[in-house]
Amino acid sequence: MHEPTLAHYIGPAAADPAPLHLPLALVRVDAGFPSPAEDFLDEAIDLHEWLVTNQPATFYYRASGWSMVMEGICDGDTLIVDRSVSPRDGDLVIATWDGQAPVCKRLKVENDHVELHSRNPHYQPIVLQSGAEVEVFAVVGVCRKIVREGRRVRIG
């Protein structure tokens, strides 16, 4: 099985985007349905402010493939990459080496030994050889559109 890559570079974060303040409910939801009695609003959040800490160094990529599915990253998800964050062992990263297409993997570093690990048991780790030209960027977020317009689920 070949290694899926990040097929689509979406682009840099927009400079000075208009704030998008969305209501944040006061009650926490345990992946269930909150009681209508607890439907009070706490504050508003700006998603750009929440997800982008260093706008000039932030870029978006679209994930392609299923090699990171056990990490919660699915085909088509948007990855938020901050090039100013220094990646460390165990971080989720975007990496490219020796002219290869960029991939999203979990970084494993031991001494001078670098591996990129998929989170799908069907894929083997990528072992980077000593002397490889490697560029690694830390991923700071993953976004997924869960509800698609026009789809409704009826139960019962």
What does this entry look like structurally?
By secondary structure, the protein is mainly beta. The protein has one domain: Ribbon (Umud Fragment, subunit A), CATH 2.10.109. 3% of the residues lie in helices and 37% in strands. It is built from 1 helix and 10 strands. The strands form 2 sheets. Strands 1-4-5-10-6-7-8-9 form an 8-stranded antiparallel sheet, with no helix packed on it. Strands 2-3 form a two-stranded antiparallel ribbon. Strand 8 and strand 9 form a beta hairpin. The longest helix has 5 residues. The radius of gyration is 19 Å and the shape is globular.
Quick tags:
156 residues, mainly beta, Umud Fragment, subunit A, two-stranded antiparallel sheet, eight-stranded antiparallel β-sheet, 37% strand, 10 strands, 1 helix
Topology (SSEs and partners):
Elements: E1 8-12, E2 21-25, E3 41-46, H1 47-51, E4 58-62, E5 78-82, E6 92-97, E7 103-110, E8 113-117, E9 126-128, E10 134-143
Outline:
With 156 residues, the protein is mainly β. Helix content is 3%, strand content 37%.
Q: Which CATH architecture is right?
A: Ribbon
Report the top-level CATH class: Mainly Beta
* Spatial order of the strands forming the largest sheet: 1-4-5-10-6-7-8-9
Q: Outline the low-pLDDT stretches.
A: 1-7
Counted by DSSP, the helix tally is 1
